Amino acid sequence: MSSTERKVILISGVPGTGKTTIAKALVKRLDAQYVSIADLVVKYRLYTEYDKERLCYVVDTKKLRHFLKNIITSSSKTLVLDTHVVEGVPADLIDVVIILRTRPDILEKRLIEKGYSRKKVLENVQAEILASCTCEALSIFDKNKIFEIDTSSTDVNSVIENILNIIRGEGSQYRIGKIDWLSLMERDERLMRFLREDVNEGSSE
Ligand SMILES: Nc1ncnc2c1ncn2[C@@H]1O[C@H](COP(=O)(O)OP(=O)(O)OP(=O)(O)O)[C@@H](O)[C@H]1O
Ligand SMILES: [Mg+2]
Questions:
Q1: CATH value at residue 62
Q2: Residue 101, SS3?
Q3: Fewer CB atoms inside 10 Å of the end CB: C or N, the chain?
Q4: Closest ligand to Cα 110
Q5: Is the CB of 17 under 6 A from ligand 1?
Q6: pTM exceeds 0.90, yes or no
Q7: Of 17, 21, 98, 112, best ligand 1 pocket probe by most atoms within 8 Å of the beta carbon
Q8: What is the distance between the alpha carbons of residues 119 and 107, in angstroms, rounded to a whole number?
Q9: Residue 132 domain-assigned (yes or no)
């Protein structure tokens, strides 16, 4: 991967791992174009229905894939795509997939700050512990395109530097599988509470 050519970079991760913060900082650094997939889905009605229970739109993956293909092929700039869900992304047009990861207790704090209910905090922290976004990415993208970066420290600049290294082809230390919260939890008993607490005990919001 040469560092000078135009790239299509996808940033994913569970809510609160810093997708929007990092994608926007990366866009500034690379003079790139920012694309929020969630915003596109709402603005251009790329959904089949609104899920009243989960309070979110159900993405029409066929429409989204077609829409993103048009954006990617008609832009000459580097693109930074910000998305929680990777279904409906045209995998062959993406050069690099960055999954942001955050230590469970730090993610919990960030989600509480975002005003999430206990149920939503737990659901998302448990999804992070089980690396759900990495698993989802693996079902769509070539493994060699996927990298994981830990955003538990507040140092946004160093996350950006890590991503720039990956784009330059120097990303071997960010290959998937190195971030393992389950092993950390075995060593730090306090983190086990996230798996013991029952998601359904919280409120329904
Ligand atoms: N290293 C870091 N990288 C990114 N964000 C960080 C970092 N350290 C602390 N933060 C903070 O964590 C929060 C991340 O929120 P942000 O909205 O960027 O996440 P998100 O993944 O886009 O969430 P959502 O899926 O809800 O849109 C911000 O308040 C940001 O300032
Ligand atoms: Mg966001």
A1: 3.40.50.300
A2: strand
A3: C
A4: 1
A5: yes
A6: yes
A7: 21
A8: 14
A9: no
Q: Give the position, in ligand 1's atom list, of the atom nearest the Cα of 84.
A: 25
Q: CB neighbours (10 Å) of residue 163?
A: 26
How far, in Å, CA of 35 to CA of 166, rounded? Answer: 20
Query: 81 CA distance to ligand 2 centroid (A)?
Result: 11
* Ligand 1 contact, 159 CB (< 6 A): yes
pLDDT (tens digit per residue) in 83-106: 999 999 999 999 999 999 999 999
Does the residue 20 lie in any domain? yes
What are the φ/ψ torsions at residue 128 (nearest 5 degrees)?
A: -65, -45
Question: DSSP string spanning 19-46?
Answer: HHHHHHHHHHHHT-EEEEHHHHHHHTT-
3-state secondary structure of 159: helix
Render pLDDT for 52-66 as a digit per residue (tens, 0 to 9).
Answer: 988 889 999 999 999
Write the CB contacts of 10 (distance below 8 Å, at least 6 apart in sequence): 81, 83, 86, 89, 94, 96, 97, 98
153 in a structural domain: yes
Phi/psi of residue 50, each to 5°? -105, 125
**Tally of domains within the chain:** 1
Give the DSSP H/E element, type plus range, for residue 193. helix 193-196
